[in-house]
Task: inverse folding
């Protein structure tokens, strides 16, 4: 009966309501290498859920498995950037040293080798997660060393040989990760004034705080760029017995790692932003959704919260303000890009699979557990704190009319100084390439695979909501890179991360894989190009959520800027190449769309 | 604030209750918007996307989207029907549908939708996924090859049968119908009298030993296209997939389970 008592113990620690499911399942996975059907049954009973509901949960997240995994799981990041930086060699070395292939476990049950999408270390690729430990700068030698070490001590934390920079050396982080703050701006990364943002907020009414954010014209940094003040106002006026502030630290867009750096260097600033939001919106509860890949930061962040409670910056009567109570709880993800989408994130927090919800209703009206909720990106909340500290005018002076302030960029790929760059909005891509040593690039992917491919003619374009919108990812491709390979990598990513709820995304992402494969193999013809375009556009037009709506972007924006990439995939011999007419295909698909907003 | 709203659907004035979906308002007015996952009487689900319409120029699923006062909604246009053809094609190539040997042929809503929209041979590659057939139950068969993941069985079992036999598991291409509490139908509460079995629009969920009871030629869509009699029943005469007759049973609410 020891088994059942283990679940009882976890229920006592984490709670007996469905929102506790993530923590319970993660703990069982860590301890036992899987969440077995028997465990699912026990959990379902304790949380008063259906077994099928628990199974659906376990089956959704890639860090949770029904089948046993090794005591240590090595997850190699197989993102496009890692593939450019030597992923194949590293994978081969691991396979050889372990004597198993990707997807398998060593016969002694000790180590499982698998792959995972971007883990937020694109500027130090190839990278892997070993257990919860991020391991950057892999090589085949390093891979062999790692395997021998693990064979001796079986403890991933002991792989940390040389610590990274900045707060990665903090005793509660102790990580090899580097922040690579190549260009910390004076705004987000400016000096810290502990408690100042909250003090300023408390000297105003909640509506004045919202007005301040509106005056600053702050727009969300998570990708969509929705005006934060407006979102806050909707949430403020929505009726609900409770309200929630959620910090979105799921950072899953391949090539993005700026939130990791902000969380490592400026966690207090982010929590201050959440607290200001709590005051402005009349919310007493905050949820901090941390992606599973960043679990190594959890003890550090818990400590930040604890110290803020001790300093009266969280908890009851914050800074002596009677009746202003606000606290923050960390919630974990478990390997799902879609969970960065705000409604999927809320489902995940509620103990459900992370597929998206229909909107309306919007989270501002009905979010976590049906209560009005404002979901904000890590960097957005940082901006909030700084706007309160320095005033809306200082912020709005930076950047452009529709894109005020600065943007923190994550630059990676073929450049000599990959890392973090905080630049005012309106900075040209050219300038970013110059700063980061990416001059001479053949192509740049702005905003990750759901964003835009830009060719050299477009390097004069600007980072701004009115031009090249980005959640922060800038991936540089040298002039000799085969973009078709990159396209295939991103197609695999979307197919892997689709929740499969709706037809276009479930089937369309797989069809894009098939078509691109034909192009790579030189088997494609005009009909394939036409089919590929129709699928990409169907995804964009008919998908249920943002994942499917953007999953066709790599193909569509490539065709706009790099039509030769797919043409080159067609057989070179005159006959069929002659039959290939890109313009006609694009025009045909445009007619199908009945418009042209790609 | 009036609780009625009015919108234009392909030039027709349609009245709706505030918060009523475009789909439900259209059905009430006798206007057909193509649909596969939606069934009046069940909560909307929004997975097939075949009901995609344009509201003031913006595409959205009619079965999910609340009617907005003064909105202009496009439905039966060449452009939208072209999108729908793509979606129906995706449902075909995304599963394994061999209509010639399927006992649902002629009563199948997917097949009928393909005919209605003029989908003949798929233009996209077949994905030919490997899927199972669950024949463990004495009276019921679940063929994952033909499942279009519309959740009609899930919702009917939950809301009309007062059970929760079906759910989903896994994501993306792997997503499939799951059975509570275990893996196989025989371990579940599923019963041959469940209305959930009638809810399946395709040949994925079938009563055993009833195949071909109605001969080909006498089946629901043998003479009339799907949606031809909309506003009334469009389901199959033998009761199979008689979507429109699914009224919420008073006693079998979600609370009941
Ligand atoms: C597939 C998908 C993934 C997303 N991932 C993230 C993410 O990792 N982090 C994030 O802040 N926003 C992400 N978003 C955007 C969120 O839905 C939401 O707009 C954002 O968190 C709102 O915060 P903001 O207004 O401060 O940007 C994602 C959206 C989609 C469609
Ligand atoms: S678009 Fe994709 S990820 Fe979004 S709901 Fe549809 S299947 Fe799921
Ligand atoms: S079994 Fe039938 S009703 Fe259930 S989801 Fe599949 S196609 Fe829909
Ligand atoms: S960590 Fe590998 S690309 Fe981001
Ligand atoms: S009927 Fe609306 S999405 Fe299926």
Result:
């Amino acid at each position: 009966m020891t088994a059942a008592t283990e679940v009882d113990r976890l229920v006592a620690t984490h709670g007996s309501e469905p929102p506790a499911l993530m923590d319970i399942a993660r703990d069982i996975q860590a301890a036992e290498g899987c969440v077995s059907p028997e465990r699912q049954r026990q959990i379902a009973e304790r949380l008063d859920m259906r077994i099928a509901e628990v199974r659906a949960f376990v089956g959704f997240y890639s860090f949770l498995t029904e089948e046993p995994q090794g005591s240590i799981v090595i997850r190699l990041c197989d993102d496009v950037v890692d593939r450019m930086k030597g992923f194949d060699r590293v994978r081969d070395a691991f396979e050889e040293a372990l004597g198993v292939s990707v997807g398998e476990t060593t016969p002694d049950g000790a180590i499982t080798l698998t792959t995972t999408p971007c883990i937020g270390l694109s500027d130090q690729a190839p990278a892997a997660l070993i257990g919860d430990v991020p391991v950057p700068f892999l090589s085949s030698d390093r891979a062999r060393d790692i395997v021998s070490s693990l064979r001796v001590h079986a403890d991933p934390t002991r792989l940390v040989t040389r610590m990274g920079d900045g707060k990665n050396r903090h005793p509660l982080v102790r990580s090899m990760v580097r922040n690579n703050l190549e260009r910390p701006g004076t705004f987000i990364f400016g000096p810290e004034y502990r408690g100042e943002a909250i003090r300023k907020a408390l000297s105003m009414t909640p509506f004045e705080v919202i007005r301040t954010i509106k005056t600053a014209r702050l727009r969300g940094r998570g990708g969509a760029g929705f005006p934060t003040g407006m979102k806050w106002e909707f949430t403020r006026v929505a009726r609900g017995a409770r309200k929630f502030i959620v910090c979105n630290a799921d950072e899953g867009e391949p090539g993005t790692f700026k939130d990791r750096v902000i969380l490592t260097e400026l966690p207090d600033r982010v929590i201050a932003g959440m607290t200001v939001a709590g005051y402005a919106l009349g919310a007493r509860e905050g949820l901090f959704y941390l992606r599973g890949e960043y679990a190594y930061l959890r003890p550090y962040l818990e400590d930040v919260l604890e110290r803020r409670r001790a300093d009266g910056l969280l908890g009851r009567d914050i800074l002596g303000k009677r009746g202003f109570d606000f606290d923050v709880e960390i919630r974990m993800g478990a390997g799902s890009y879609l969970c960065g989408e705000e409604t999927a994130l809320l489902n995940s927090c509620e103990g459900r699979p992370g597929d998206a919800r229909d909107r309306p209703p919007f989270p501002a009206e009905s979010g976590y557990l049906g209560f009005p909720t404002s979901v904000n990106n890590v960097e957005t909340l940082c901006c909030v704190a700084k706007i309160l500290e320095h005033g809306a005018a200082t912020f709005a002076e930076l950047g452009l009319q529709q894109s005020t302030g600065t943007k923190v960029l994550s630059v990676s790929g073929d450049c000599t100084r990959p890392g973090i760059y905080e630049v005012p909005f309106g900075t040209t891509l050219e300038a970013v390439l110059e700063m980061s040593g990416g001059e001479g690039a053949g192509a740049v992917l702005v905003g990750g695979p759901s964003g835009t491919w830009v060719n050299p003619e477009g390097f004069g374009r600007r980072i701004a909501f009115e031009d090249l919108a980005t959640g922060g990812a800038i991936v540089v491709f040298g002039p000799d890179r085969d973009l078709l390979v990159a396209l295939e990598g991103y197609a695999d990513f979307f197919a892997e991360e689709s929740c499969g709820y709706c037809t276009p995304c479930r089937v369309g992402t797989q069809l894009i894989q098939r078509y691109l494969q034909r192009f790579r193999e030189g088997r494609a013809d005009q009909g394939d190009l036409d089919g590929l375009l129709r699928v990409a556009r169907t995804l964009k037009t008919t998908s249920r959520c943002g994942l499917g709506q953007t999953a066709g972007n790599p193909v569509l924006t490539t065709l706009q800027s790099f039509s030769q990439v797919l043409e080159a995939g067609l057989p070179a011999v005159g006959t069929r190449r002659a039959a290939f007419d890109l313009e006609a295909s694009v025009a045909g698909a445009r007619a199908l769309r009945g418009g042209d907003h790609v | 604030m009036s609780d009625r709203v009015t919108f234009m659907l392909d030039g027709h004035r349609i009245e709706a209750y505030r918060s009523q979906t475009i789909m439900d308002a259209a059905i009430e007015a006798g206007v057909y918007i193509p649909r596969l996952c939606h069934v009046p009487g069940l909560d909307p689900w929004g997975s097939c996307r075949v009901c995609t319409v344009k509201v003031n120029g913006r595409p959205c699923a009619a079965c999910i989207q609340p009617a907005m006062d003064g909105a202009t909604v496009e439905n039966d246009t060449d452009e939208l029907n072209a999108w729908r053809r793509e979606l129906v094609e995706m449902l075909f190539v995304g599963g394994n549908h061999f209509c010639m040997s399927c006992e649902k042929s002629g009563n199948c809503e997917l097949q009928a939708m393909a005919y209605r929209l003029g989908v003949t041979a798929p233009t996209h590659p077949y994905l030919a996924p490997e899927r199972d057939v669950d024949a463990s139950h004495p009276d019921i068969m679940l063929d994952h090859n033909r499942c279009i993941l519309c959740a009609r069985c899930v919702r009917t079992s939950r809301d009309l049968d007062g059970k929760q036999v079906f759910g989903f598991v896994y994501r993306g291409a792997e997503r499939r119908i799951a059975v509570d509490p275990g893996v196989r139908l025989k371990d579940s509460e599923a019963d041959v009298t469940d209305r959930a079995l009638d809810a399946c629009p395709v040949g994925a969920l079938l009563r055993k030993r009833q195949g071909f009871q109605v001969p080909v030629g006498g089946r629901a869509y043998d003479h009339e296209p799907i949606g031809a009699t909309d506003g009334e029943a469009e389901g199959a005469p033998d009761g199979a997939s008689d979507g429109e007759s699914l009224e919420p049973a008073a006693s079998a609410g979600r609370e009941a389970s």
